[in-house]
Amino acid sequence: MGTPFDAAGHARSVWNEIVEYIRNMHSPLVRQWFTELEPNELSSGVLTVRCSTSIQQQYLAIRCREVFNDAAQAVTGKLVSVNFICTSGANGNRVPNIYNDVILSPDYVFENFVVGSTNQLAYATCRAVIESPGRNYNPLFIHGSPGLGKTHLLQATCQEMLNRRPETRIVYVSCDNFINHFMTCVQAGGSLDQFRNIYRNAVDVLIIDDIHFLAGRNRTQDEFFHTFNALFQQGKQIILSSDSPPLEIPQIEERLVSRFGNGMVASVGKPCYETRFAIILKKAALRGINLPANVSELIATRFENNIRELEGAITKIQAYAMLNGGKYDLETANLALGDILGPSDRIVTIQQIIEAVTHFYSVKVSDLQGKRRPKSISMPRQICMYLARKRTRHSLQEIGGYFGGRDHTTVMHAIKTIEDYRKNDPSIARVLDQIEASLDNQAARNAVSNTPRNFSQA
Ligand code: ADP
Ligand code: MG
User: Fold this and answer.
1) Does 210 contact ligand 1 (Cβ within 6 A)?
2) Of 41, 53, 298, 385, which is least packed with CB atoms within 10 Å of its CB?
3) pTM for the whole structure
4) What is the reported pLDDT for 27?
């Protein structure tokens, strides 16, 4: 029998080995905050680990249980399991959970949310709702395409409300589960009172994610309408998210559309280059990895539409880096992302971009590469830089060098300018579509002639 100190020391060393094992075998799962977890003891085949919040505890116990148990068995060679507990008094003890479907992620907090021009309003209104729930923005309706941060904002709002006022009764459900819960109660017969008690009486804040799934669900829509009214009349806060604005959700009753639009409607849009770059840094830091700037640039340039894709790219690179002795360099990143880019890779040379742009705008190559900057040239030049970043593997520095020795901030500015034009000016969007279509043809030809995809292309 060892002393208590030995026991604690033993638990810690086993725990460290487990985390190291997971870092090697399942690197994308590892988070910086794992280091805050406290292994307590290892006895009777159970390693008890203390979490500082119940949200961490629930997340680990439900989302990561198997991985931790497998790791515990691998490193001890025995039938050891890991039990996560939480006993702290102060912070975030109440996990809002009625239907037991939404597992809050410790990642989805405001600290980890990068604010940019396209999500600024949604972010600010969430903050305002936390300050005075049920007052100013009721309902709060957040909409945007998938992968742009709606769930992250909803969960962050929920977690922050619980931090501020742990007694708040929050019901946070996905729309699917709201529907299922309702249908189950209907089918069971007679248990609607219980359902209504949960959603209308025992609640201070109702959060429903992906409310557009109510489309075509007439009976649930009717129930939700009454739920909404009951809560609204009591001054309870309602927060909803949807992949389209109220008016564009198909097959939804008009009276609901008008309720949705009555409070605050805020959108989340595609983030610009700088925001994407900042998000990549944030995500990498959360995972405890250090991505060199050129790798972050590569990801930020390649994935424009969906933040989930940015994360997917980091995960891929992480997996390759683990195979590659933990090296996070451009070569690893290119290898990792190779198959995401599609068969012909859509990759072209800078030369081909310049040809396409000069052809379109009737400007001279020497002008594009020169120092002069009249408007007639600066726009095509900026388009070249934007396309070079999007369609070649060159770094910002290299591209700047190519176009008259400009520095990387100038290239970043060019990318942002053209991205903005592409979003806001349909005539320029059409020009870019045309140029890109001609580049697609080039890329297909490159693929056929088997041009090696590497840096020596330009
Ligand atoms: P949605 O619910 O709109 O489909 P999510 O909230 O699930 O999107 O976001 C997808 C991923 O992108 C999540 O991992 C989320 O953390 C991340 N994400 C989205 N927006 C941001 C942001 N502004 N800052 C940091 N991460 C973000
Ligand atoms: Mg979502």
Assistant:
1) no
2) 41
3) 0.77
4) 86
Domain count, the chain: 4
What residue type is 11 in one-letter code? Answer: A
Q: Are residues 335 and 377 in the same domain?
A: no
Q: Which atom of ligand 1 is nearest to the CA of 146?
A: 4
Output the CA 109–ligand 1 centroid distance in Å: 11
Q: For 257-276, what is each residue's pLDDT tens digit?
A: 999 999 999 999 999 999 99
Give the burial class of 437: count Cβ atoms within 10 A of its Cβ; 0-12 exposed, 13-18 middle, 19 or more buried. exposed
DSSP track, 41-83 = EEETTEEEEEESSHHHHHHHHHHSHHHHHHHHHHHHSS--EEE
Pair (44, 122) in one structural domain: no
Say yes or no to pLDDT of 344 above 50.
Answer: no
Q: How far is the CA of 217 from the centre of ligand 1 (A)?
A: 27
For residue 434, what is the domain's CATH number?
1.10.1750.10
Cα separation, 303 vs 254, in Å, equals 36
The position carrying tokens 């806060």 is: 237
